[in-house]
Each structure stands twice: as C-alpha cells, then as structure tokens.
Amino acid sequence: MRNTIIAAALLTVGVAHGAEFRLPEFDTITLQNGLTVYLMERHDVPLISVRAVVKAGAVNDGGQPGLSNLTGDGLLLGTKAHDKTAIDNAFDYRGARLAGGAGTEASTVQANFARADSAVLLPLFAEIVQQPSFDEAELTKLRDRKVNGLKQAKEAPRNVVQNYYRAMLFGDSPYGIPPGGTVSSVGALKRDDVQGYYQRYYRPDNAAIIVVGDFQKTDMRQQIESLFGAWKASGPAPAAQDNGKVKADKARVWLVNKPDAIETTFLIGGAGIARNDPDYVPLQVINTVLGGRFTSWLNDELRVNSGLTYGASSQFATLSQTGTFAISSFTALPKTEAALALANKTYQRLWDRGIDKATLESAKAYVKGQFPPRYETGEQLASLLGDMYANQVGRAQIDHFTRDVDSLTPEKAQALIARHYPRDNLQTVLIGKADAIRDIAKTWGDVTELDIAADGFR
After folding, report:
1. Can you tell me the distance from the alpha carbon of 53 to that of 76, in angstroms, rounded to the nearest whole number?
2. Cβ atoms within 10 Å of 443's Cβ, excluding its own
3. Cβ pair 265, 155 in contact under 8 A
4. How big is the CA angle at 174 (ends 153 and 144), to the nearest 5 degrees?
C-alpha cells in the first residue's frame, strides 16, 4: 500500500521515466492586507498540510539573541481563547501534528491533519498564528528549558560548532547571531520582549500561508480569506537590512578550548552562496563528489582509507543574502594534525585534479535519484514553498533541476569551483583540548582562543 501511495505521489509531482521533475502547479494570491497565500491541490491522499512563514528570525534579534526562537516556540503555548492543553488535545485527539519555531531568517508554524478535520483544526491554526497569548507561566517554563538546553549543548561540540563558525565568519553582523541565543541572553528575556517581537514582525505583509493537500482551491481560498483576511498590521513594515558578509581577508583559526575533550571537532571553509543563486543546483552535484555522500572524496579519505574519523562531509549552508561553505569532521585528539592535513589536501583536489567525467556522471545520477523523494509528501512540498517564499527562489530552480544537472560538464564544474569554492584564506574552527592542539592550530592561520565554558560563541 505504501509503495502505491509513493508511486502516485511521484507521478503527481511530474516524475516519470525519462521525464524532467517539475513542481506541481499552485496558485499564488495576495490578500488585501498584504498576506501571501500559496494553494497547491494534491488529491492522492486525504491529508492537508498548512504552514505559516514569517520573514523574521535570529537576524532580527538585535541585542537579544534567542528572542525570535522563544517567540516562535511560544506561539504554541496557547491563544486568547484556548490554553496550551486545549490546543494539544485538539491536535493529539485527531492524530494531527503541530509544530513551530524560528531559524536564522524565518519563523514557521506548521500543521498536518486529515482532510476531515480541516473544519476544526484550520481555524485553530489561524488562531495560533494571529492571537497567541504568550501565557506568562508557560513562557517562563519554556525559557528555562531553553536555558538548560543551552548549558547542556556545549557538552557535545558538534551541537555548537556551527554557532562558533557563523560567529567567526560574520562577526557582529546579524548573520553572526546564534539562532538559539546564549544562556545569559535567553535567561534575560521577558514576556514583554516576546510580545514586542511578535507585534513588530508577525504581520500579514511579512508572512505567507501555504496550504498543500486534498482540497478545492476555490473553497480553500474562501476559508483562508475568512480566517486571515482581518489580520491587520500595526506600524510600518520591517525595513530591509544587510545581514552581513563573510570576513575572510586572511587565514584564521578559532581554537575553542574544551579541556576534557578526547577528540577535536573542526570546520574548514569560508563564504558560500545564497539560496537563490543561479548555480545552486550544479553546486549540489559538485559537492556530492567532494563531501555530499558516503562515497565522497572526503569520507573516503578521512574515514575509509585512513580511519582518522567516523565521517567527513562538506556543505553549502545557504541563506537569503549569502551563505557559508564548510568541510566538517571530528577526530581523536592524537590524530588532529593528520586529519586536518588530509582534509585540506583532499579539498585541494578540486583544483589540482578536477572532476573527471565518470565521477561527475556518477554524482549526477545520485543527485537526480535523491531529488524527487525530497518532495513526496504534502508536508515536504509545503516546506519547499515556504523556503521559496522566504528566500525568493523562483520555481524555475525546481522545474529546471534535471536540465541543470544534465548540462554540467567537467569544464563547467571547474569554472564553478573557481567561482564559488573558497581556496585561499580558509577559516577554521577547532573545538578540543587547546593545550594539545595549540601548535597545530597555528599552522592553519592566525589563532584566536576561546573557552567553551564562556557564555555565548565569541
């Protein structure tokens, strides 16, 4: 039965043998209050996925890191008409799912439920988005849990290495703000702060409602207009802002001291690309060769051939205005020097040897095989549409995916490597026992030492 459903879903999104993957058709509507609405019908299963996306996240936290994160999660703590218990019971009783949260540049509330429950749960979803109560007692408990989580996170360096990396690359700019905040910043947040953030950024002209699933567009449009049409913005719309650029004018190393560490966690890289970059798709193919799958160069060299680590990878982490690129791995403390040297040597293969046709063809086949299953479900498609809204990604990037993969040649790959992969002035974050790896760190750039026990990530 499950295979039948998946096959139907894949055919719905336009995947057939030899055919190019295409995004299903959807309507884009702008209500009078400025709210963007995406409606995508899918009748293969009787489910509905709904998602609210607000263009606000950690980059808007200012001097209060973690405020967007607390606000996003705080939406689920109750509304003016229903407390948290009533909301939880309404969704749980029907086997539905409800979640929320905030990232670097966007905040979301999402729900998935059976079509038959839409009449009850869709109005409740609208209430959660527009009329949160931010109950003081519940919000205090949530804040305290987050503080405890931040304290515990540094026990495992892989939980926090990205926060150090972003702080290193972006400095004091908005992209350098840790999405979850710090122990001191989150601990100082009050209900008034959360309400103020909500009033500034949760407004119809800064948000989108996405509905994917088993419904009729005309009926759903009327429902959305009825439920969200009276939502009003207060004050001027949030102004556009520059969220920062990567600083990489020289090779640098941030050495984060964890005195009890028995292994070294590291990231190596620099500037990357924005989510809507025209080269986004072919770069996924190239990165598959370097560090994007189990048989990648990095994993082969650092894990399979040398046994220096249990895994190594590379990734372009995209944002709306720019992004980062990083090689990531970890190794036993005595193997730090060898692992760093081999990671850097393997990375240099992109320029020293390039990617031959056979290797590229294998990566292209892998990427094409991995792409359609990412959009099997209504929930996945709603997430994609939310990503497209928040990052200004046109549907052409999805519809032309197969074409852009197939057109990549070794020569084009080398041009993209030269254009987008940082080669000089690499930025490195090391988390480990500083006394044991300090001299090693110096070989890779100017060293700045931090203590993992210190609050924050800089």
Report:
1. 15
2. 12
3. no
4. 35
DSSP type of residue 31: -
Alpha-carbon gap, residue 373 to 307, rounded angstroms: 32
**CB-count burial class (<10 Å; 0-12, 13-18, 19+) for 358:** exposed
pTM of the model: 0.93
- Contacts of 365-371 with CB under 8 Å at 24 or more apart are 366/288, 366/293, 367/284, 367/285, 367/288, 367/405, 368/402, 368/405, 371/21, 371/401
Contact of 212 with 143, CB cutoff 8 Å? no
* Pair type for strands 107-114 and 97-102: antiparallel
Opening angle at CA 109, ends 367 and 62, nearest 5:
95
Among candidates 242, 243, 231, which has minimal Cα distance to 199?
A: 231
Q: How far is CA 254 from the centre of its chain?
A: 23
* Reduced DSSP (H G I as helix, E B as strand, rest coil) percent helix, strand, coil of the chain, to 5: 50, 20, 35
Rounded CA-CA distance 199/133 in Å is: 12
Q: Where are the beta strands (DSSP E) in 283-425?
A: 312-318, 323-332
Distance CA 318, CA 429 (A): 19
* 128 within 8 A of 71, measured Cβ to Cβ: no
CA 317 to CA 71: how far, in whole Å?
24
Per-residue pLDDT of the chain (458 residues; tens, 9 = 90+): 334 333 334 434 444 444 577 899 999 999 999 999 999 999 999 999 999 999 999 999 999 999 999 999 999 999 999 999 999 999 999 999 999 999 999 999 999 999 999 999 999 999 999 999 999 999 999 999 999 999 999 999 999 999 999 999 999 999 999 999 999 999 999 999 999 999 999 999 999 999 999 999 999 999 999 999 999 998 899 999 999 999 999 999 999 999 999 999 999 999 999 999 999 999 999 999 999 999 999 999 999 999 999 999 999 999 999 999 999 999 999 999 999 999 999 999 999 999 999 999 999 999 999 988 889 899 999 999 999 999 999 999 999 999 999 999 999 999 999 999 999 999 999 999 999 999 999 999 999 999 999 999 99
Set out the domains of the chain in order of their start, with CATH numbers.
31-228 (3.30.830.10), 252-451 (3.30.830.10)
Cα distance between residue 213 and residue 5, in whole Å: 14
- The 3-state DSSP class for residue 430 equals strand
- For residue 244, give the DSSP letter: -
Number of C-beta neighbours around residue 202 at 10 A:
22
> With 0-12 CB in 10 A as exposed, 13-18 as middle and 19+ as buried, what is 253?
buried
User: For residue 226, what are its two tokens?
Assistant: 């009825």
